[in-house]
What does this fold into?
Amino acid sequence: MNSKPLRVFAPVLALLLLTACGSMGAQRNPRDQALYSYVSAVRWSDFNAALAFVDPETLRTRPMTDLESERYKQFQVAGYEVKSASEPGEGRYEQVVELRLVNKNTQVERIITDRQQWRWDAQAKRWWLVSGLPDLDAR
It folds into this structure.
């Protein structure tokens, strides 16, 4: 029995399967895409990018100060785990997230609970984080 055709086609088949699996992620609904992108920004400790997800009304009433911005830069995100999630109403989404943060200066890890509230903006066709960026003083 000649196994040469199997050796030739196995990598091609594997590549096709990986491509098919990868394209499935592109079919996320707008909420899941927003959450995925937000998590990516936070996991990379890019709080400036995460700020782009915050509701403009929230930013208007509670703008981030330079001091707060510098404080976020002191932390490296070591973990992001969704503990619970719910849809309390149409166009609303809430989740409780456990964040593990390491202070870059002291190398001390802290665990905080981030209670996120999201809303759908039909006009902008996107989800906004109403609750703002994580409170670094939360427990």
About this structure: The radius of gyration is 20 Å.
